[in-house]
Design a protein that fits this description.
CATH class of the largest domain: Alpha Beta
Structural class: alpha/beta
Radius of gyration: 26 Å
Protein name: OSGI2 inhibitor
InterPro entries: FAD/NAD-bd_sf (IPR036188), OSGIN1/2 (IPR029731)
Low-confidence stretches: 1-10, 21-43, 237-261, 537-541
Organism: Formicarius rufipectus
Mean pLDDT: 81
CATH topology of the largest domain: FAD/NAD(P)-binding domain
Strand content: 15-25%
GO molecular function: growth factor activity
Distance between the termini: 58 Å
Length: about 550
């Protein structure tokens, strides 16, 4: 059932108000709640920032918005002499308060976003060259830099890491998965966890992220079991400046604090959704925000082949479903092989999982095994032996070799799936046009995943690099300003992490840095505006 009573909704929103009012120990004197029926012109609950997604992207952004600031450590010397000279020029300033474009100029790395490369080299200097240098930063909590915000997530802090298949190692080292201010190795040691490898299990990372939110004092900013149904802009005009002028009387809210200060918040966005209660019921809410940050990741919607028969129940699209089928014994004793479609790391994980459970595999993928864009080409053999084992099989155990026809693993490079048949058969077509029919026990389509931005206008298709196309991490990420991470096509809307092409945790932290700096500058301008309206502080030195 769905709650519709004002009292129940008020209880949920009262928790938002409590969180907002407790910030820095200052209580908001006037913060009305909202009912589903109120009009946008009424006095409503308005937040400076709403973050959608509580994975590592959302957590890191909350950390910076909570007032944590990175400074160059007194004893630190960055191995890049040019960057170190730049850092020394403003040693007294936090990195958030410095010119990120100037600092990131000339840096190179495995992200196309310059601030991501900058922050990564400050946290993991020369990591791509195999060095294990300590960060050149130390962190200070400066509460006067706190920007009120709330982080909304479907599950506990950590996002999709809580639902990833637990049998495989992460692709990145544990150190690269850590967030600022809390060493993963030290955390693991304190929990007496036996980390045998530099690469760790996803459940270890999920537990670390959940603990991070607690130990850093960020819990008051987080709300779990929250599902967003709509994010819409309230006021639109020829441009943002015109909109602001025309709607100043209704789109700005003055919040009076106990110490007499005022905060000016423009209601640019309406965020609607519901929180799932412990009994499974839905408690609706509606918030208004000046800024919205998208940190949802890309694990929402598995990629699909869009072919006939893909909706049959024996065609799976996730490792978790495959793992469940194995654990329930559904594939035990099956004579026909598992059909795995895809040439990425998740598909490789599925191959390893099947082989470890003595399940024969037919492996179908579109690319040539010599394709330089295959992910295996980017992974050092010594660090990732299990993936190179799969790649070796892909290359040497092809269907074209007679001895492989009855092998436990057979690859089908340069093949497309045309259809799935109800008798559990699959029709393939080779690059030359030759068709083949394979019999299988279960099919597993693992060709990537895409973000589900259904809650945005036109599902977010208008904010990508290619307009009117779905947002994807590789082919069509959200188009952003490279230094502020604000959407170039939608003011006051920010995005970070996989949504802007940064799949690795070590790089998504740069998005949090860019957004935090942008919002800090805007907050400073607001305070200056308020002070000028109040007569410059009336003698305050």
């Amino acid at each position: 059932r769905t709650y519709s009573s004002t009292e129940t909704e008020g209880q949920l929103l009262n928790s938002f108000v409590q969180y907002f009012g407790d910030s820095l120990g200052r209580k908001i004197k006037r913060m009305p709640l909202i009912e589903e029926t109120v009009l946008p012109g009424d006095s409503l609950l308005t937040l400076p920032v709403v973050i959608i997604g509580n994975g590592p992207s959302g957590i890191c952004l909350s950390y910076l918005l909570s007032g944590y600031r990175p400074y160059l450590s007194p004893e630190a010397i960055h191995p890049n002499p040019v960057l170190h000279t730049k850092l020394e020029e403003a040693r007294h300033l936090s990195i958030v308060d410095q010119d990120l474009e100037y600092l990131s100029e000339g840096l190179e790395g495995r992200s196309s976003n310059p601030v991501a490369v900058l922050f990564d080299t400050l946290l993991h200097p020369d990591a791509d060259f195999g060095y294990d240098y300590p960060p050149v930063l130390h962190w200070k909590l400066e509460q006067h830099n706190y920007i009120p915000h709330i982080v909304l997530g479907k599950g506990p802090p950590g996002g999709a890491w809580h639902s990833m298949e637990g049998s495989m190692l992460t692709i990145s080292f544990g150190d690269w998965m850590e967030l600022p201010g809390l060493s993963f190795k030290e955390w693991a040691a304190s929990k007496r966890r036996n980390i045998k490898s530099d690469r760790v299990m996803p459940e270890e990372i999920a537990c670390y992220y959940k603990h991070y939110v607690k130990v850093m004092g960020l819990q008051k900013n987080f709300r779990d079991n929250v599902y967003i149904t709509s994010v819409s802009r309230l006021y639109r005009g020829k441009d943002d400046e015109d909109r602001s002028q025309r709607n100043e009387d209704i789109s700005t809210q003055h919040l009076e604090m106990e110490d007499g200060q005022k905060s000016v918040i423009k209601r640019n966005w309406e965020v609607r959704g519901y929180q799932r209660a412990t009994d499974g019921s839905h408690v609706p809410f509606c918030l208004f925000a000046e800024n919205v940050a998208l940190a949802t990741g890309t694990f929402d919607s598995p990629g699909r082949l869009q072919v006939e028969g893909e909706d049959f129940p024996f065609v799976l699209h996730s490792m978790s479903d495959f793992g469940a089928a194995i654990s329930k014994g559904k594939l035990r004793g099956k004579a026909d092989p598992v059909l795995i479609v895809g040439a990425g790391l998740t598909a490789a994980d599925a191959v390893l999982c099947a082989c470890n459970n003595n399940i024969p595999v037919k492996h179908v993928f579109r690319r040539r095994v010599t394709d330089t864009s295959l992910i295996f080409k980017q992974l050092p053999k010594k660090l990732y032996p299990e993936y190179h084992k799969v790649y070796h099989m892909m290359c040497t155990q092809s269907h074209t070799v007679d001895s492989n026809q009855h092998s436990a693993y057979t690859s089908f490079p340069e093949h497309n799936v045309l259809s799935f048949k109800p008798e559990m058969k699959c029709v393939l077509q080779s690059a030359s046009g030759l068709k083949k029919i394979l019999k299988f026990s279960v099919a597993l389509v693992l060709i990537g995943s895409h973000p589900n931005l259904f809650f945005l206008k036109d599902q977010g298709h208008s904010i990508g690099h290619h307009s009117n196309q779905p947002i994807t991490c590789k082919g069509n990420p959200i188009e952003i300003d490279p230094y502020t991470y604000e959407c170039t096509k939608e003011a006051n809307l920010f995005a970070l992490g996989p949504l802007v092409g940064d799949n690795f945790v070590r790089f998504l932290k740069g998005g949090a840095l860019g957004i935090a700096r942008c919002l800090a500058i805007r907050q400073k301008k607001k305070h200056e505006m308020i002070e000028s309206e109040d007569g410059g502080g009336d003698g305050v030195p």
